[in-house]
Design goal:
- The chain is elongated and about 70 Å long.
- Helix 6 packs antiparallel against helix 7 and helix 11 packs across helix 14.
- It is built from 14 helices and no strands.
- The protein starts with 6 loop residues before the first helix and ends with a helix.
Length: 261
């Protein structure tokens, strides 16, 4: 995706036109309209052609020489949004572009940034920092930035400690639950419920136990919680998780309901 000849983008565009026959004409129509603030017609086109289902299917059953796994990995885990905006900035500098084409590029860059924020994959400060980095890369005054915040920092060798935080509005509910539920399984149920509600990161039992012990005290050992958690999150021979068995799932679902209300 970083090649100057646009090879990566060309491959993605070719794939898009093969999945969506009308994609190329839709882009041409948008260029002719000269208005790019609304791209809902593209979203409709993607939906009508089941693009998401196609990509997921090809990711799970990878055809030979498919670029889909690498493409999706780049889009989700890589600096895809930043690179698309950078490429737009580079393209705008071309003398051969007319006004409409430049406006199209600007609009696409804005759409990329807005989508990255609305989807929760980036925040505004990420973009502010990124544009600052771009300005520094093109400038000559790097010295102060290169050493800022470095003089007073202490060297921290080795692995960073795992930390977890729980939202304030959940602490009272968790406290009431812990009044009568402090066994290994009860705490493992709580951890899994918080994970499924996206309030806690997977694993991280030590940090989870420490935050509970600091807040409420008398929390059983990390090893006990870890053992119960491992059992519940293990998969069985049929591929199902232990936590989804009928002797466990009702407790987890009740906890999720309690934490959500």
């Amino acid at each position: 995706m970083n090649r100057k000849d646009n090879a990566g983008y060309d491959k993605i565009f070719q794939m898009a036109t093969s999945i969506i026959p009308k994609y190329k004409s839709a882009i041409s129509r948008k260029l002719n309209q000269g208005s790019f603030d609304d791209i809902s017609d593209f979203n409709i086109l993607f939906s009508e052609n089941n693009v998401a289902e196609y990509l997921v299917s090809n990711f799970q059953n990878i055809p030979k020489n498919s670029i889909i796994p690498a493409m999706l990995a780049w889009l989700y885990f890589g600096k895809s949004f930043e690179r698309m905006v950078e490429r737009g900035l580079e393209m705008r500098k071309k003398q051969t572009l007319n006004y409409v084409e430049k406006q199209f590029i600007v609009s696409i860059m804005k759409q990329v940034i807005e989508f990255s924020i609305s989807s929760g994959l980036r925040i505004k400060s990420d973009w502010e920092n990124h544009f600052q980095q771009l300005q520094l890369a093109d400038g000559n005054n790097l010295e102060n930035w290169l050493i800022q915040d470095s003089i007073t920092e202490k060297k921290n060798v080795g692995r960073k400690p795992d930390t977890q935080e729980l939202p304030q509005h959940l602490l009272e509910k968790i406290g009431k639950y812990l009044e009568n539920n402090k066994s290994e399984n009860h705490l493992a149920y709580l951890k899994i419920a918080l994970e499924e509600l996206k309030f806690s990161k997977p694993k991280g039992i030590k940090a989870f136990r420490e935050i509970l012990n600091k807040k409420y005290g008398n929390i059983i050992s990390e090893r006990g919680i870890q053992s119960a958690y491992k059992t519940l999150t293990d998969t069985m021979s049929n591929g199902e998780f232990q936590k989804d068995l009928k002797q466990h799932r009702p407790f987890i679902d009740q906890l999720k309901e309690m934490l959500s209300n």
